[in-house]
Amino acid sequence: MEKTTAFITEEGDGGQEREVLLDSSNGSNGSGNGDHKHRHKTSSSFGGDEKGIFEFFGWVYHIGVNSIGHEYCHLRFLLIKGKYVMMYKRDPHENPGIKPIRKGVIGPTLMVEELGRRKVNDGDFYVIQFYNRLNESKKGEIACSSAGEARKWMEAFDHAKQQAEYELSRGGSTRNKLSMETDIDLEHRPRVKRYAHGLKKLIRIGKGPEMLLRKTSNLGGYGTSDGYFEGQFGDAIEAHEWKCVRTINGIRILEDVADSKNGKAALVKAVALVDASADTVFEVILNLDRRKRYEWDTVTADLELIDSYDGHYDAVYGIYDPKYLTQWKSKRDFVFTRQWFRGQDGTYTILQLPAVHKKRPSRSGYKRTTINPSTWEIRSLNAPMGSNIAKCLITHMLEFHTDGWLPWKKNSCSKFENTIPYTLLSQVAGLKEYIGANPSLSYESSSTVFQSKLSDVSTSNSDFEDSDGQDEFYDAIAGGSSSSSEDEESEDDPDKKGRKIKLKNVSWAISSLALKRSSAPDVNKELDPSVPPFHFDPSQFNGSLCKGKDETDSNCWTSPSGRGFMIRGKTYLRDSAKVMGSDPLLTLLAVDWFKVDKATDKIALHPRCLVQTDAGKKLPFILVINLEVPAKPNYSLVLYYASDRPVNKNSLLGRFVDGTDMFRDARFKLIPSIVEGYWIVKRAVGTKACLLGKAVTCKYFRLDNFLEIDVDIGSSSVARSVIGLVLGYVTSLVVDLAILIEAKEESELPEYILGTVRLNRVKPESAVPLND
């Protein structure tokens, strides 16, 4: 029997949810292509009635390993309707009456992680993994033909989780509620975009099942997405001072004049607006197909994959004929690594660093050269109203020595045009022209179709309500036999004559940063105003990492103001305006820097912890943030924040402290900023706010006068990759972090900063063993 890949919850008689392991012994290998559609049917609420259901569907590869260790890859039609998931061998819309081979309910403990690119059937696909947060042994995977489709499926599963949460909050059975870790707060339901009352929203993703076949048969081709990202600025104020020094073929070349004052190296970037989605541009840059790269890349076109370490990190070998650069007399080769990430705002970042690899030693007839460290950043912009053309901003940034650069930027005679840095900057111009010459890469099918009648596909809620049970999603796709045969009884075609109305995506304005305004927390709103403040001396609290006296100290921490961070203002829901943060609500008392054998939860219960001291027990409230850092050895960076009054139970902070884990995951936000350090690390970490509960596994522990949040950074392959890069430079980094609760309703705005910390050049060897 095969252990398959994706997850589903079984709902038994009486509405009780249970976990059932199905087998897929009667599943057949499929071949087809990645046609992904999202069908959304929404009303004014997220309700579980027939008028408030989201529907997503499309073709995916269902991949896994069977019981005898053989890998399998089946083409499957996946459909998500509300909180229900179904998997078919054929499209049920084209084959009325067909029964799903797997079906189930998405439970609230479902975790979805993007694993990046992987070879599947000789093609490059983007893999999504599913697992149960309470039982990580139940895992499964599906493969999508493009990064954009993977992103859409992740959004689909997130919608389904919200649907399940809201239906339970409206009064499901007692046993259903007991299946969740904690009771759901009835007053706080997810905010959903409203489309049309009682209608179904259909969005096509990808180019049909033929796309998967083309990719697995080495025919190439780029998948596209119809989604738009909101172009947004970073959420931390950076110290870069970019000056445009030249414009070549519509491409701006800018220099960071603040960073180049030392005169030894220049940090330069080329910027262009491209008529294509960020998903498309990302795949063009990552594609190693020589025939395609020859059309836009003047220096790194002949590339060969050496090693792929995970879905977000690989090593590449390249050769170059110097006849186009008269400065070189012999053929050159080079090795570099690529790391890529997709932020929660949809921005792609690709890091390219020179490397040495044992599989590619020096080659006879070639001179080994070093490619300059560089980064790509691809950010989608809002399309104009009624436009089918997506737009994105491409930024290619690199560092190099200033020889030849200064005369060139002054329009003097220079040999800079014959150097590697110039050819790398010129890649942006080549990429823009290449995409412009290929309309299929630019066109984005962004139309949305509403149907006034519901389509009769055999996927109604009654299919589940009448059945003996439904599987948890991580069960039915993570391994089970088909619950139904392949028999298909013909039925009369449903009435599909409902009138169709075409709408276009709405373009949201990008507001300017309101730097002169600030958002200060309303202490009387978040903390209990009826209790007099508790006076405590922060100096009586000490952690294993010492507090710095000034900015020049190393291996220490300080607590900066929130003015270096941009957060949601009072009018954010209307105009997306962000304002400068103010002083944090909570006081940072101490920081512990522990060395541990493995990731350690509930660290507040340890006798060495500040919470267990006599002084700590007297504090009204303590927020403990335990950042679990994967390394050899593992580390725990523990931050202790305190308030001088108890938390107001009716405030946003109160609802977070005593709320459900799902509510906390959707609101717990962190904004990072590398104040000082290597620019590559700055680009990798970024400055965008991150919902930690969506990016990595977070566990919450509420007891007595404290709430502990254990952040397992190692639970995400992307986070592990980024933290590995950071640890390599940590002794030269100054890192600022801001912690806050995301505001989503008008009454919760403006946002405020819960706490901040600045980590000054921390030394890993200074960490103390937790058990000593």
Automatic annotation (TrEMBL):
Biased composition (Acidic residues): 463-474
Gene3D superfamilies with a match to the protein in the record: 3.30.530.20
CDD domains assigned: START (cd00177)
Region of interest (Disordered), residue spans: 1-45, 460-498
A Pfam cross-reference name: START
Gene Ontology MF terms in the entry: kinase activity; lipid binding
START domain span: 242-409
PANTHER family named in the record: ENHANCED DISEASE RESISTANCE PROTEIN (DUF1336), ENHANCED DISEASE RESISTANCE-RELATED
Protein name: Leucine-rich repeat receptor-like protein kinase TDR-like
Originating species: Hibiscus syriacus
